[in-house]
Write a structure and sequence with these properties.
Layout (H helix, E strand, L loop, with lengths): L5 H22 L2 H9 L4 H4 L3 E9 L10 E6 L5 E6 L5 E7 L3 E7 L6 E2 L10 E2 L9 E5 L3 E8 L10 E6 L11 E7 L5 E7 L2 E8 L20 H6 L1 E2 L3 E2 L12 E3 L4 E3 L2 E2 L3 E2 L1 E6 L12 E6 L2 E4 L4 E4 L4 E7 L2 E7 L4 E7 L3 E2 L6 E12 L9 E7 L9 E5 L3 E8 L1 E7 L4 E7 L2 E4 L2 E4 L4 E8 L4 E9 L2 E2 L4 E6 L5 H4 L1 E4 L5 E7 L2 E9 L9 H4 L7 E5 L10 E3 L4 E5 L16
Parallel strand pairs: 1-8, 9-17, 9-18, 20-27, 28-36, 37-44, 37-45, 42-45
Antiparallel strand pairs: 1-4, 2-3, 2-5, 5-6, 5-7, 9-12, 10-11, 10-13, 13-15, 13-16, 14-19, 20-24, 21-22, 21-25, 23-24, 25-26, 26-28, 28-31, 29-30, 29-32, 32-35, 33-34, 33-36, 37-38, 37-41, 39-40, 39-42, 42-43
């Protein structure tokens, strides 16, 4: 079953499960914990004739895993429905269940909490009912990987309280996928850090820190020298440093972790003379000071500078001190301007440097049949190329929102919670879709959102006349060049059913591939080989229809084996072949 927002949602569910399981274990005895979890079985479930049973095994060795907490979760809100613990042989059994669909999850110390038959951020829900074989499941639980290391400075001294940032690289098959944050921690008094509970994959490390002895020297003139050599030596900074001890993001060495592996990655920091950046601070019309903002981006993650110290307001100037050489984004002035700074030396920034940026104030307006409540995350993503400005994000509270500084250009606006942007109205002109054009002035916009434009496509996979679990289901647009924006994926459940969510209007083919999770499915040349065996479907654009539209495929989707192509050279082509 597909997760709507896979990273955020899967992490939230896993952390909730870990908290539930281990809080019970730590505060009460184990038998009592199991008893309390088992009490989650509802009265309706106790009357049912079905069961979910099987064996938990180590995904690497195949050995039984005893003492694993196994839980059934409701599909609607992922709340615990029933739970038990695997015995000495890894067996588990949850009985007296009604016909229903559940998420099945397992957790144990030293293993990664996961869902049944999980691949990436997809898994197979377990469906109980007449004719469904849910009594002999094999739950493969992957041992956790652990990454640890030490951060040292010049002379090998431990760097305490350094911020260590962990990022995970995409598997390379998902079009448009980007490097994602995977965790953050700080070093202890020995300079040590640790990331437990990691899944197999390829990771990147970055470290931000300040020398413990650093004291920035501020002045009203960049030409003024420190009074003593000692004072100059203390005005130092650590550049952001990546594994393996490089300050060049593009030269960062990936760390490949296998399930159950323990790997050490040490990083050495080298202090350099700190830079000073002075920026003018004009007053706004209301008398307030337009304070500048200096930020860094690390693997696409926008971060304020930990090492930055700001002094001033003197004579209409602000001075950033303790700055390490590197790439920064400076927002300054009123109206604001955004400048990319390659800081290699101390400088006073020209007030006219950078591109103009403008405030975008707006209000959310629900389309007929759509209810709005709570807060919504809004994101502006540039429609330009790789050198485009970084995305901008803000929250809409009580339907109102503000993007403080947006550079001129064309932006794609996205909204959270599975909603779609139907249109954007600016200056009395309504433009269908989610494109927003910022030119040379601030904007006031009305954004109409709906839960009804996109649809949910439901179907079932079949192999040898039976529902097939664990197939990778791909919704392929007729225009293969649009794979990155329009393709959707899911994993078939234990009865073969699947649901493709948030599908945009258009013509598609649905294909199901057995063991296709390492396939380069985002490559049009690769996925085109499976299209003749798929099922076609058309989603019509009906923005005024009721929310939650569903399309049920009239025919089952045949599960195709993963194909292997041998090119003329005789070798296997591509990581998925």
């Amino acid at each position: 079953m597909m997760r709507c927002h896979p990273i955020c949602e899967s992490r939230r569910k896993k952390e909730r499960l870990k908290s539930l399981f281990w809080d019970l274990r730590e505060h009460i005895c184990l038998p009592a914990a199991i008893l309390l979890l088992s009490m989650a079985v509802t009265a309706a479930a106790q009357a049912g004739p079905y069961r979910v049973a099987g064996t938990v095994v180590n995904a690497v060795t195949g050995e039984p895993v005893s003492g694993a907490m196994v839980a059934l979760l409701t599909v609607e809100d992922s709340s615990t429905f029933a739970a038990t613990e695997s015995d000495a042989d890894g067996h588990f059994d949850i009985e007296h269940l009604s016909a229903a669909k559940f998420q099945l999850t397992a957790s144990k110390r030293g293993y990664c909490t996961s869902f049944y038959n999980q691949h990436e951020d997809f898994n197979s829900a377990v469906v109980t009912g007449e004719g469904q074989d849910t009594g002999s499941l094999v739950f493969r639980l992957a041992p956790e990987a652990v990454l640890s290391g030490e951060v040292t400075g010049d002379g090998g001294d431990a760097v305490e309280s350094a911020t260590v940032l962990l990022f995970k690289k995409p598997n390379g098959h998902d079009p448009g996928a980007k490097i994602q944050p995977a965790g953050a921690t700080t070093t202890d008094d020995t300079g040590s850090y640790e990331f437990p509970g990691l899944t197999a994959g390829e990771y990147l490390l970055a470290v931000r820190a300040r020398p413990w002895y650093a004291i920035s020297h501020f002045s009203t003139s960049l030409n003024r020298q420190p009074e003593t050599e000692q004072q100059a030596a203390l005005d130092a900074a650590y550049p952001v440093t990546f594994f393996d001890s490089t300050t060049d993001e593009g030269s960062a060495t990936p760390l490949v972790l296998a399930s159950g592996s323990r790997q050490q990655a040490n990083i050495n920091l080298h202090a350099v003379p700190a830079l000073h950046i002075q920026v003018q601070t004009p007053r706004r019309a209301d008398g307030s000071i337009a304070q500048p903002d200096l930020r860094q981006t690390i693997f696409g993650l926008d971060m304020a500078g930990d090492s930055q110290i700001m002094s001033g307001g003197r004579d209409g100037m602000v001075e950033f001190g303790g700055i390490a050489p590197g790439e920064y984004e400076l927002t300054q002035g009123d109206p604001p301007r955004i400048a990319d700074l390659n800081a290699t030396e101390s400088q006073q920034v020209d007030p006219g440097a950078g591109a103009p940026a403008f405030a975008v104030n707006g209000t959310l307006q629900p389309a007929p049949g759509t209810a709005l409540s709570g807060a919504y995350l809004l994101t502006l993503e540039s429609s330009g190329g790789d050198a485009s400005p970084q995305p901008r994000s803000t929250f809409a509270n009580q339907r109102a929102f503000t993007f403080n500084a947006v550079p001129a250009g064309t932006w794609k606006m996205h909204i959270s919670n599975g909603l779609d942007i139907v249109s954007i109205t600016t200056g009395g002109h309504t433009q269908p879709g989610n494109l927003l054009t910022v030119q040379d002035h601030a904007l006031n916009v009305t954004v109409t959102v709906s839960a009804g434009r996109t649809v949910r496509i439901e179907g079932v996979t079949r192999k040898d006349g039976k529902g097939f679990a664990g197939a990778m289901v791909v919704l392929v647009p007729k225009n293969l060049a649009a794979m990155a924006g329009l393709a959707r994926r899911d994993q078939s459940d234990s009865d073969g059913s699947f649901a493709l969510l948030n599908v945009e209007p258009g013509d598609y083919t649905v294909v199901a591939i057995e063991d296709g999770w390492n396939l380069d499915w985002g490559n049009p040349v690769v996925i085109a080989r499976y299209l003749p065996g798929g099922e076609t479907v058309t989603v019509k654009d009906s923005p005024d229809s009721q929310p939650g539209r569903r399309i049920a495929l009239s025919e089952p989707v045949a599960v195709q084996p993963k194909q292997v192509q041998i090119p003329a050279s005789g070798g296997l082509r591509g990581s998925g072949w």
